[in-house]
Queue: 3 jobs
Job 1
Amino acid sequence: GITKCYLTLRYSKFLLYLFCQRREQAMNELEAVNMLLEAIGSDVVNSLDSTHPDIGAARRVLQRKAKMELRKGWWFNTDYGVNYEPDAVTNEIVLPDTLSSIRMEDDTLIRRDKKLYNTIDQTYQFTSTQTAYKQIRLPTWDEMEADMQVYCAYLSAVEFVRLETQDVGLQDSYGKDAGLALIQLKRTHLQMLNLNIFNGANY
């Protein structure tokens, strides 16, 4: 009734507020790289295209840590009930390169060679829509939610300091910050899941 509609509207506005807040607090990849460079006492840069000798290593650490965390599946990179249509010419279903994992509603279907494969019929060809029960995507750094960016940056700083300077005290300091960032990330994750459940999303 009216009360439920009013509550839904309030939660929708709250969801928009949280989204805007997270966007304002976002840490782009350049900021994250500079954080790692500062952690080892190196000069910061104005562009990721800089010839600074430590940029490549810093970006690799960021990407490795981010991928490790994203594979766990969070509210912003986990999708349910995604439909895939076979190609009109080949009848094959090519899956996105950005997928970390996918579980189909029909558990005889798996991902193989970046395409959907029927393990029973031993074929890549399909004649109808196939639905993924759950899939986890690997967004780029700038597509990640702000809380995940911050957590991955601090987590990467721990690793980068370990690799470049072996400063145990600095590792501990960044490790504590990473722990606090993880608490905030998990809190936001639960908030978003609860909001999605309230709005009828399939979680």
Job 2
Amino acid sequence: LKPVDFLAVMTTAERFKRRLNAAKAIQRRVRERRSTGADALRPMPTPSRSREDTIVAGMRLLEQRLSALDQTPEEIQGDGACQFRSMSYQLFGTQEHHAHVRATAIGHMRGAARDVFSVYFDGERSFNAYLDDMSAPTTWGEELTLRAAADALQVTIHVLTSEQVNWHIKYEVTSPLRILFLTYVSPVHYNSVYRGVFGRSD
């Protein structure tokens, strides 16, 4: 396994692709080093370490949390659309409708909920630039797109993360039609949770 430089700022398309490849390499490394903790839900104290090692430890902790919750991870393709692929899998049992999920979330922000989301940006031009960029098929989704998807699709989204604290995040709606479960390896990749029955609210 080649060493991965996670300290570079991933701003260009070239660096973006490198980051995706690095995330895949870390996933392989975690699978090789998988172990079971005595208390899978509790973060373990760790010494100072590199960003790569922190991500590796986070992935292991996330796997332990899923195991303790009797959940099975579902690996999602890492092509820049992993957040939307994860939601597509939960909604439809396949990753392939990720473009529809993305378009629904962006359309909601651009239309009915424009006033709700535009306040996070410095003017209309900045917000429109964000929406145009987020519409691209390989732009990474983030907190706003999760909120928009939850509202537009009338679903509650649970995100189980590899963070040491506050690792369970909920994007709730009133009377959800579905309940979705995603996982997030901070700060690089979304996966999904295999539940057998996809996102039933009961």
Job 3
Amino acid sequence: CASGDFKCVTIPRTSSFVLNKAIANPNEVIAVTISSASTAFSHKLVFKTGDYRTVQDIAAGVTNTSFSIPSFWANAFPTSQQGTISVTVKTYNNSTLVGTSTKYITLTIPATDEFLPDFNTSLTFNNSALPSGWNVVLQNISTVTAKVQSATGQYGSQIASVYIICNNYTKSGIEASFDLPNTGTSTVVFRVTDTRGFTRDKV
């Protein structure tokens, strides 16, 4: 500016920002770097998905912050392994809102123990065809009844299917009975799938 002509002032404009990742798992740190037109500008940082929302007040001159998406935000996506998180930076000149800028993160729910469906199991052997007191399992005579109990999805998901597998036979439902035609060991596999498509097997 030439002296005596006019005074240059900072023209308020919305700050830009950069995220350190576009895809994240729950509890991973999202770093945010803000580029502001003036060190006098303050900001609000808003992370949001569905009914979940968190707001950070960023003081003037502060350019770096971070946030971890909590596991329970997976409740917003009960039928999907992915969801979208909006990240909005609101720029303020004193108390006046200058403008907003928004970017998006894909939240990926991992197939880890925390997010897989869970359940209990039980096995009951039926030896009614045997003489009383015979505490044995006999081929082609004894049967086994397998049950899935207390099956629950995690973070909003529901149980979509239950299968019980024994001796190459697969039956649908929380309870199934099987003959034991083979000698040796028979393995029973309990398989539960939730509405996200996550499956847990127990043997």
